[in-house]
């Protein structure tokens, strides 16, 4: 009887089971205007806490900023 109930419930739900893997999205190239806007936001905000109580500045942001600025200057 349990087999009969499970068989009928499987037939009643026509929805496919969701896949277990998640869809991964690839990053797209940034437009020049978007890059300029991002640089202005990064310069304006205090993301690396140089102005705050945090004593060690974020070196990763400095590397990103220098590479973005050199790319924009080309």
From TrEMBL:
Region described as Disordered: spans on this chain: 1-23, 51-74
Residue spans of biased composition, Polar residues class: 1-11
Superkingdom field: Eukaryota
Full protein name: Uncharacterized protein
